Amino acid sequence: MSCKNEKDKTAETLDQKPMNVLFIAVDDLRPELNFYGANHIQSPNLDKLADESLVFNRAYCNIPVCGASRASLLTGMRPTRHRFINYSTRADTDAPNAISLPKLLKQNGYTTISNGKIYHNNDDDSLAWDNRWFPKGNIRNYQLEKNIIENGSANLAMGGASAFEMADVDDSAYFDGKIAQKGIADLKMLKNKNKPFFLALGFMKPHLPFNAPKKYWDIYDRSKIELPDSYTQPESTPKQAFHNFGELRNYGNIPKKGDVPDALAKQLIHGYYACVSYVDAQIGLVLDELKRLELEEDTIVILWGDHGWNLGDHKLWCKHVTFETALRTPMVIKVPGKTKGQKTNAIVEYIDIYPSLTELIGIAAPNTVDGQSFVPILDGQQPEKDWAVSKFKDAVTLIKGDLFYTEWTKDDGVAYARMLFDHKTDPLELDNLAEKSEYQDIVKQLATELRAKWGKDFLVDSKPLK
Question: How far apart, in whole angstroms, are the C-alpha atoms of residue 76 and residue 98?
């Protein structure tokens, strides 16, 4: 059979057979990966997936906090001042009338399975799933006795345990190893069913604490790890842009105030790298099984991190800010017959994932979805939309071209602080242009555009009354 006929056959299959979806979420994953130009983290399985996918160089979450980001992505709806706010957000509370992506697929004959962390609350949007599973045990998942004792029964409200752990254990000791094995078992089960599937795997690392088997720590030489070039907080940046990274300070070996000491900072970066390599290995096991079961040609694979993460950038740790380091995310999509390692600089938002997947599998998205399909990019077309909007608390950011413009506003929409960075000349976001006289015309234009694009119900109380 000729190459042309093989392509025609693939296209015909795409048109006629409902595609499966393998939906992989990775908690706190930065786009600090080889296929984004970095070369110091070993992630061979993600690299291989990228070589078979469309890689989005400019994908942005709509809010840099896990629960809200996931609820927004899975409903395709923008966060507002009153909807999708923080880590504990529930989609079924903030948007009870929305038909989520898994619910829509379930309604259209898909088997839907949630493993690990997909929504922040495992029982959120429960009717969307045929099966929900999460590993048993304390969510911090320590393996060393000292950390288990010091953590006690603390879960989200941590005890005195370390922010990282290097345990000489098998991969399956930690949650992500168990999540991978559950995913593999589900693929074997789904292989024999006549229904298409939406299999969601939510991996936990590299979320804090940076716990990974010792062999992944051993990959890296800490003496070669350096602090980021942006390890500073310029006076021109509004004080509202910075925070005390309380999520990290809750751990027992982190100082309660002030900068993290350099040696400890490098130890944290080391732990983050180890966790990325660990989760990469687990994802590789699942992708290998997908291939072994001969499901590759029938399955769309999309992988995304729920938001960015600061590893000392601006002397910050964690997320919860609107610097690019917290907003820009890794995202790749593998579509049989369509992707082969292409890269795009088109700006996409996480709310665009929902309508893109529904278009690819031939199901109409509901009118509650705010996102715009990026499927034309898969066909080599230039998308019409060239911007994204992200927010966190009072801060709301317009990303357009090389410009990142943020305003802090109250309920009336009037700004009380602002910042503007031009990534063409300042990719590290160290020179705030918003208060410079020569940029006032640009600021005025961006302020108008921000309000036009942040959503029709951004300022109104869009949450249902309790």
Answer: 9
Q: If DSSP states are collapsed to H, E and C, what string results for the chain?
A: CCHHHHHHHHHHHHHHCCCEEEEEEECCCCCCCHHHCCCCCCCHHHHHHHHCCEEEEEEECCCCCHHHHHHHHHHCCCCCCCCCCCCCCCHHHHCCCCCCHHHHHHHCCCEEEEEECCCCCCCCCHHHCCEEECCCCCCCCCCCHHHHHHHCCCCCCCCCCCCEEEECCCHHHCHHHHHHHHHHHHHHHHHCCCCCEEEEEEECCCCCCEEEEHHHHCCCCHHHCCCCCCCCCCCCCCHHHCCCCHHHHCCCCCCCCCCCCHHHHHHHHHHHHHHHHHHHHHHHHHHHHHHHCCCHHHEEEEEEECCCCEECHHHCEECCCCCHHHHEECEEEECCCCCCCCEEEEEEEHHHHHHHHHHHHCCCCCCCCCCCCCHHHHCCCCCCCCEEEEEECCEEEEEECCEEEEEEECCCCCEEEEEEEECCCCCCCCCCCCCCHHHHHHHHHHHHHHHHHCCCCCCCCCCCCC
Is residue 17 very low, low, confident or very high in pLDDT (cuts 50, 70, 90)? Answer: low
Cα separation, 224 vs 216, whole angstroms = 16
Would you call 270 a catalytic residue per the annotation? Answer: no
| Catalytically annotated residue among 120, 207, 307, 314 | 120
243 in catalytic set: no
Which tens digit of pLDDT belongs to each residue from 362-388? 999 999 999 999 999 999 898 888 999
Q: Where are the domains of the chain?
A: 18-382
pTM greater than the 0.85 cutoff: yes
Q: Which CATH number fits the domain 18-382, given the four candidates 3.40.720.10, 3.40.50.150, 3.40.50.2300, 3.40.50.800?
A: 3.40.720.10
Summarised one tens digit per residue, pLDDT across range 320-352 is 999 999 999 999 999 999 999 999 999 999 999
Interatomic CA distance for residues 294 and 248, integer angstroms: 42
Marked catalytic residue, from 61, 66, 275, 318: 66
Asked if the peptide bond before residue 209 counts as cis, ω within 30 degrees of 0, the response is: yes
Alpha carbon separation from 283 to 119, 437, 443 (Å, rounded)? 19, 50, 43
* Maximum Cα interatomic distance, the chain, rounded to a whole number of Å: 67
